[in-house]
Design a protein that fits this description.
Layout lengths: L2 E3 L6 E4 L11 E6 L5 H8 L11 E2 L2 E2 L5 H8 L3 E4 L11 H11 L5 H11 L15 H13 L5 E5 L7 H18 L2 E5 L3 H5 L3 E6 L2 E7 L2
Parallel strand pairs: 3-8, 3-9, 6-7, 7-8
Antiparallel strand pairs: 1-2, 4-5, 9-10
Helix pairs in contact: 3-4, 3-5, 4-5
The protein binds adenosine-5'-triphosphate and magnesium ion.
Length: 218
């Protein structure tokens, strides 16, 4: 699989010959140097970017064959995503950011569940704040709450503890793994944190857009 972003001549080949199968319920850490293609691979797997060649089978669907609307429907309620740049909606409060995807999915108790999820990430006192009024680590936790609140079958997280101090990062890790165990969630986590990688069942390493190591935890 090769992923090209942008139109020619801005085309950049980022991923090459990726062949990766992740089993349901598996937890995978994705490691690699900065620029090795981790976020790009996650974007392809989550259906946020389209590869220029290859197939992407997720939740029984070939993501390369779906249009934007079909992809959005396929993701809704099934796939939670925490991006490296949190992508919170600036005009919505923390609570609204977490609740709105649930509301869109037709859940009637969206705001109650969003409030509980924000409490779980330690932000019970920040529900009414807008993203600009939150620290980087707080914004990251809102993004995590938003990804978890729909109880997704598949969770993608790009450096979910990257902006957090050791204690808060450990608490968030506990939450992610507890949820994954509880719901049998398949989890793909990009991380530079050895402690986080060590908790995953499998470690996949990228270099220059290729998988160079794929190791089950001993
Ligand atoms: N939209 C884009 N257009 C062109 N090139 C891009 C785009 N996004 C990423 N790239 C390039 O693709 C390569 C891989 O980027 P990617 O963001 O996947 O790396 P990464 O492994 O996530 O790095 P980091 O650890 O710094 O987040 C980099 O060389 C980057 O410059
Ligand atoms: Mg990245």
């Amino acid at each position: 699989m090769r992923l090209a972003l942008g139109k020619p001549p801005a085309r950049v080949d980022i991923l090459h010959g990726i062949d990766l199968t992740v089993e349901t319920g598996e937890t995978v850490a994705l490691l690699g140097a900065s620029g090795s293609g981790k976020s790009s691979l996650m974007a392809v797997l989550a259906g946020l970017e389209r590869p220029s060649a290859g197939e992407v089978q997720v939740v029984g669907l070939d993501f390369t064959k779906l249009d934007e609307d079909a992809l959005a429907v396929a993701r809704r309620g099934r796939i939670g995503i925490v991006l490296q740049a949190f992508h919170l909606l600036p005009t919505m409060t923390a609570l609204e950011n977490v609740a709105v995807p649930l509301e869109l999915a037709g859940e009637s108790d969206a705001f109650d569940r969003a409030r509980a999820e924000l409490a779980a990430v330690g932000l019970a006192a920040r529900t009414g704040h807008y993203p600009a009024q939150l620290s980087g680590g707080e914004q990251q936790r809102v993004a995590i709450a938003r990804a978890l609140v729909g109880r997704p079958a598949l969770l993608f997280a790009d450096e979910p503890t990257g902006n957090l101090d050791t204690t808060t990062g450990a608490a968030i890790m506990d939450l992610l793994f507890a949820r994954a165990a509880e719901a049998g969630t398949t989890m793909l986590v990009i991380t530079h944190d050895p402690a986080l990688a060590a908790r995953c069942a499998r470690v996949v390493e990228l270099a220059d857009g290729r998988i160079v190591a794929d190791t089950p935890r001993a």
